[in-house]
Amino acid sequence: MQKNGTSSNYYESSTSVDNDAFEVPLPDNSVTTVLHYCKKKILTPYLRFLSLMGLRPLTNEPRDVCICLRILSGTYTLSVVLLMVLGYVLQYMACFRRDRGFCYVSLQQNGSLLLMRELETVHERTCEGSVLFSFVVPGLLHLVAYLHLLFVLRSTDDEQLPILMERVFLISTNLSTGFMSQRKLVRTLWFFVICGLVWMTLSFIVVNYMMSDAGIHFKWMKKSSPIVLLSMKILLVICTLWHDVVQATVVSNYCLQAQLLTSYVQFMKEKLLQFPVQPLGWMRDIEDFKKLLNHFNDRIAPSVCLLAVTDISFALSGLLWIFHLDYVDLETLPIFGLSILNVLLWTFISSIPFIQASRLSNSCEVLKSVGQEARTRPYVHQDTPTVELDSVLLYTTSLKISAKLFHLPITGRKLCFCVTVVSIIVLTLGQCHYFISQ
Fold first, then answer.
1. SS3 content of the chain, % helix, strand, coil (to 5)
2. In degrees to the nearest 10, what's the CA dihedral of 396, 399, 401, 407?
3. How many other CB atoms sit within 10 Å of the CB of residue 374?
4. PANTHER family from the entry (predicted)?
5. pLDDT tier at 129, thresholds 50, 70, 90
6. 247 Cβ partners below 8 Å, 6+ apart?
7. Which residues, 6 or more positions from 85, have their beta carbon under 8 angstroms from its beta carbon?
8. Under 8 Å CB-to-CB from 12, ≥6 apart: which residues?
9. What does the alpha-carbon distance between residue 96 and residue 314 come to, in Å, rounded to a whole number?
């Protein structure tokens, strides 16, 4: 009877963690409580969001559902892909570029300055000459990035994110600051999700203002009825917003897994330094981490790399256009405030994965010195044989682990060097009057 009462009390204490979105787990840090907290606060909501994006099945247990639900899930994913393709076509038909919006040409007519925004010839001339690089290539890179992540998450029933998240939470249970670390980790993960939502909101505002400030004319639809044109404009807004949602989803998935791997390394370091552990078991945990890291670098990173190429090109193209350094669109006029905000948004979304990768690489670098630090601890490992401590020291110093993008290790030193070089180039071009508006 006492056993049943204890189980009942434990169930009540386990379910009590649902009251607050960021409430910490109970101090007992039992495995069941920690896993319940992990799933309720971040894992289950985020997996449902990935299902909404078509990246995961609509049901959490696809093997146990009927064939009708599987067909429904596949049809939904196909609809998502078709919506993205429709968006690329509509953007070309409307001559709407993500790096610039609609290009306006300043012309002189009857002695007054007019913005020829509603003339079809203006939009046609803007679309000519750069169809491949302005529409086809960016659209293909965006679509392939989504399809690659879809293949990774669906083809082999990939469970990297749930496994990684549960392991990180379980590793932190026995640390001296376990429940505080879990609370901080949940808030950090939600921070990346919220950043994605903020980016989508700002991008949606910029896109809508650009569209409302321009007379939109669709190619091959000159004699269509107003209702058809209005429907196409609404579809253009919806598809463009969906493109941004896909963009934020791919980037946030990368950032979340990078943060989890960073916390994994930090918790493993604290575990070795705070408690006497079995060196062989600790090294096995590091080997498991290396497998997760290799999966992260080989299968999750390529999608972000494809998007980074597009995003960086959008940011640079928009910046050159603002300063009238485009060799073709010399007479086009940007919407100065929104055009700058558009460039900043593309710069932000392209830089976040590199920052997260550098943080993960820096944590991996710190792990190399943990063996020496544990070797010199006078109290924690005083009962551990010296031979085992020496094996940990040799093992950690020989580690070669880091986050990679474009198959290159990303570190903070490399990012600082790149920022320095770019700053020098910008300063030099400014001193040579390349950034003076004409």
1. 70, 5, 25
2. 170
3. 22
4. AGAP010540-PA, GUSTATORY RECEPTOR
5. low
6. 142, 307, 311, 349
7. 143
8. none
9. 13
Please tell me the least confidently modeled range out of 9-18, 69-78, 395-404.
9-18
Tens-place pLDDT, residues 89-101: 999 988 888 988 8
pLDDT at 122 over 70: no
Q: Which residue pairs from 154-163 have beta carbons closer than 8 angstroms and sit at least 24 positions apart in sequence?
A: 154/55, 154/56, 154/57, 154/77, 157/62, 158/299, 160/257, 160/292, 160/295, 160/296, 160/299, 160/300, 161/43, 161/46, 161/47, 161/253, 161/256, 161/257, 161/260, 162/43, 162/47, 163/292
Query: What is the C-alpha radius of gyration for the chain, rounded to an integer number of angstroms?
Result: 26
Tokens 């493109």 sit at which residue?
Answer: 243
Secondary structure element (H or E) that encloses residue 358, with its range: helix 336-367
- Judged by average pLDDT, the poorest of 50-54, 103-107, 234-238, 394-398 is 103-107
- Cβ pair 272, 370 in contact under 8 A: yes
The residue assigned the tokens 């049809």 is: 75
What pLDDT digit, counting tens, does each position of 309-339 carry? 999 999 998 888 888 777 766 666 677 788 8
For residue 333, give the 3-state DSSP assignment.
Answer: strand
Q: Break the chain into its structural domains and give their ranges.
A: 40-431
Residue type at position 331: E
Q: For the chain, report the end-to-end CA distance as a whole number of angstroms.
A: 86
* Length, in residues, of the chain: 438
Q: Pairing mode, if any, of strands 112-115 and 404-405?
A: unpaired
Distances (CA, A) of 238 to 90, 107, 220, 242, 265: 11, 32, 21, 6, 41
Cα separations in angstroms, 98 against 31, 48, 75: 47, 29, 28
Q: How far apart are CA 195 and CA 208, in angstroms?
A: 20
C-alpha distances in Å from residue 33, one per residue of 165, 285, 344? 14, 22, 42
Highest mean pLDDT among 25-39, 112-126, 193-207, 368-382: 193-207
Q: Where are the alpha helices (DSSP H) in 275-325?
A: 279-295, 301-322
Provide the pLDDT for residue 329.
64
What count of other Cβ atoms lies within 10 Å of the Cβ of residue 152? 19
Is the Cα torsion angle 3, 9, 15, 17 positive or negative in sign? negative
CB 160 within 8 A of CB 257: yes
Give me the amino acid identity at 1.
M
Residue 265 has pLDDT above 60, yes or no: yes
In single-letter form, the type of residue at position 220 comes to: W
